[in-house]
Amino acid sequence: MKLSLTLLLTTLFFLSCSEEHKAPQAKQFFDALPNTYLAKSSFDALPRFQNENYDEIVDEFLNNCQTEKAKRIYGQLCENAKVILNSKHFLTENFRPYLIYNDANSSGGLLTGYYEAELHASKEKTKKYKYPLYETPKDLITVELSSLYPELKNYRLRGRVEGNKLVPYDTRAQSRKKNIDADVICYCDSEIDKFFLEIQGSGRVQLDDNSTIFVGYDNQNGYKYRAIGRYLVKIKAMHLEDVSLQSIRTWLENHPSRVDEVLNYNKSMVYFKERTQGATGALGLELHARRAVAVDPRYIPLGSLLYMDAEVDNVNFSQAVLAQDTGGAIKGAVRADLFLGTGVKALEIAGKLKSKLKLWILLPKTMQEKKI
Asked: Cα angle vertex 223, ends 201, 204, to 5°?
């Protein structure tokens, strides 16, 4: 059956309008974002931007500008922000929003959340406190590949020397069966809490002498992160729609004989260092609740000023955030992990947060697009 010309044109029109910014528009590239599809946008397109706290955004932007990564993106704007009179005017006159796409056609993404974990531990190993929180092992070798292969600048090899060869480092299961050549920060009273600390990346530790120390991510053993929630679904321990931080914890606590089996599914193991401040991201800055996100630096450079639209704790959440952290589970362009702070409420929200996400990056208007 032939399609009439009118019907054909009408069909093509509605197809072209069915999704905002189709492929021809989502093709801006920048040197700072070589892998990321972008579409020019505007501040009018940012949901609830008119309700934002502009002074707070500029304060967060200035804090971000302490880092070299932010200065490389925003240059002179980092200096100009110190002497402005009108925060909203500074933002709208100097920045241009770009909607971020996963590819030329899809701007939909995923938002999850994380928090600053809280643990109980001791500096001394006892019957109660027996799970070691390790610093980076002394025999862990990290190989930077960028000097030989610039296209692999975001990748590193990790392993240890055996004879005259670099071999993979021990998995989580292997590490738990031997004495690791690493200093111990403290001994925790819960292996489950320690595991979730690895996922969150930073935490505060209440010691048995009532003092508090802060710990943060320092390194890992070189294996890709594997979600234990996926394993629990695979073994039919729970349904996919029921997976959350809380449900995983409950299952582990109710099945102590299978804790090792489940945790070992994630071969990746994180090593920590003691810090002088609370939750700290990959930029070395202390994270501020609901203003900091973890991103995939292959697509979104650390130090970026972003704007997000999602739902958090059953409430619409649209505001500016800063790309200040990374995470093993954060993969893709339209993908973010929102830092929610410390405490029971932050844990509760983070454990259940899985929301559709739209994400914009705010770039200097002076930044030159690449010709493609």
From this structure: 15
What are the distances in angstroms from CA 293 to CA 33, 79, 94, 227? Answer: 17, 23, 23, 20
Dihedral in degrees, nearest 10, Cα atoms 95, 360, 322, 369: -50
| 293 and 201 part of one domain | no
Query: Both tokens of residue 350?
Result: 């983070």
Mean local confidence (pLDDT), 201-207:
92
Pick the range with the lowest mean pLDDT from 21-25, 213-217, 237-241: 21-25
Instruction: Identify the CATH number of the domain in which residue 186 sits.
Output: 2.40.240.50
Contact 98/360 with Cβ under 8 angstroms? yes
> Phi then psi for 162, rounded to 5 degrees?
-130, 110
Nearest Cα residue to 131 out of 196, 219, 58: 196
Same domain, 244 and 120: yes
Over 80: is that where the pLDDT of 150 sits? no
- Beta strands 202-207 and 212-220, pairing class: antiparallel
